[in-house]
Structure formats: C-alpha cells, structure tokens
Amino acid sequence: DLQLTQSPSSLSASVGDRVTITCRASQSISSYLNWFQQKPGKAPKLLIYAASSLQSGVPSRFSGSGSGTDFTLTISSLQPEDFATYYCQQSYITPPWTFGQGTKVEIK
Amino acid sequence: QVQLVESGGGVVQPGGSLRLSCAASGFTFHNYGMHWVRQAPGKGLEWVAFVRYNGSHKYYADSVKGQFIISRDNSKNTLYLQMNSLRAEDTAVYYCANDRLGDWGHGTQVTVSS
Q1: Which tens digits make up the pLDDT trace of B3-29?
Q2: What pLDDT, in 10s, does the model give residues B76-86?
Q3: How far is B102 from chain A (nearest CA, A)?
Q4: How confident is the model at residue A73 (pLDDT cuts 50, 70, 90)?
Q5: Average confidence (pLDDT) over A94-102
Q6: What is the phi-psi region of residue A19: left when phi exceeds 0, alpha when psi lies from -120 to 50, beta otherwise?
Q7: At B64, phi and psi to the nearest 5?
Q8: Which residues contact B110 (CB under 8 A, 6 or more apart)?
C-alpha cells in the first residue's frame, strides 16, 4: 500500500510564526492530497484539498503546495486557534484512503 | 447545512458485535459515497470503509476486511457499520464522513473490553 510520511511528527512554535509541515508519498499521487486539522475531542476538519485548494471558510493563512510525491502545508502566521494536529491524506490510489501519521503543533 | 450524526457506540465484550449508524441531513445523501474513519485513543486517523453512492461497491481496510460490513439505506439517509468479532484493537472513536471527507460527524466511541 501507498504510505504517507509527515515531518516533523511534532513542533513547537509561537504565535505569529510561519509553520511548514511536509508530507511525502511513497509513490506519485499527482495532486490528490488533502490536509486536515484536528483539535482534541473534535472531528477532523478539511483545510486544503487537491494539494493547494483552500476549503471554503478556511483562513487564507493556510496554504498548500506540491505534486507527485512531495507536499507542504504552510501556516503563514500561526494563530492561537491553530494549535492542533494536522494530517495529510491521499485519494489517488484507493482503496485504501491513506492518512499520514499526523503532526502536532504545540505552543512554544 | 450538512449534518452527520453517528450513534450506536458503546462498551462491548471481546468477540461481540455492534452496529453503528450515521444519520445524514442537509445534502442529497443518495448522490454521495460515504466513509467510516476511526481513531484509536492517542493515535492517528485510520480509514475503515467506503461505500459508493448507490451501495454497489464497498471497500474495506485490510484490518477490518471480513469483520466489518458497511451498508447504507438511501430511503432513510443513513449509513451503517456492522462490526463483528470485536477485538480490543477496535477500540476507537468512529466517524462517518462524505466522499470528499469534507464533512464529518462528531464521532461515536466504541470500547471493546471485558
């Protein structure tokens, strides 16, 4: 099965920082890559779909880029409400619909 | 607006069965495929199963193949997950979500314990 590897697994950052999370696929997935945010005790929320398209209602400080095997989620200026766990997920080679292992963004 | 409401979770003994339901509203349910995704305590997201809009095709994670059955009743706008021969490692919060994973329910807790 296709694997998605996120890095880092966790990071500490301050409000206002620029944060970058990467997701690497074990084989090409074109642009079929989504990013989710999950806060404790809550359902995941779709942030970015098709690698770089912003889901409706998501703040513009979130952006995604990449294609093929290497993808990036960027938060341009970290806000207090952005402290959460972020997951990438692919929908190119299915089943299965694979998730990355997650990146926890914590307050420095 | 879109609403997905899961129910049917609870505590069950190893080897037992549960049927989860996901009641959908606010969109044309019969036009969309649906997923079940789970999250074990302190762990990441794991895709479980998917059913096409009309129920014609069903797909399962290897970890639940032959154990879980996904189904839907489009007349009732409801998605189901029949879970059999439950094991401790099936303990998780189970979420239903639409085909693009753009809308999720709040989740239902399943605990397998003696």
Answers
A1: 999 999 999 999 999 999 999 999 999
A2: 999 999 999 99
A3: 6
A4: very high
A5: 96
A6: beta
A7: -125, 0
A8: B9, B10, B12, B18, B20, B38, B83, B86, B90, B91, B92, B93, B94
- Sort strands B108-112 and B10-12 into parallel, antiparallel or unpaired: parallel
Other Cβ atoms less than 10 A from the Cβ of B84: the count is 14
Whether A108 shows a pLDDT value over 90: the answer reads no
In chain B, residues with a C-beta closer than 8 Å to the C-beta of A44 are: 37, 45, 95, 101, 104
B34 close to B51: Cβ distance less than 8 angstroms: yes
Task: For chain B, say whether A38 makes contact (Cβ under 8 Å).
Answer: yes
**Cβ-based contacts of B37 with chain A (< 8 Å):** 44
Give the chain A residue whose CA is nearest to the CA of B46: A99
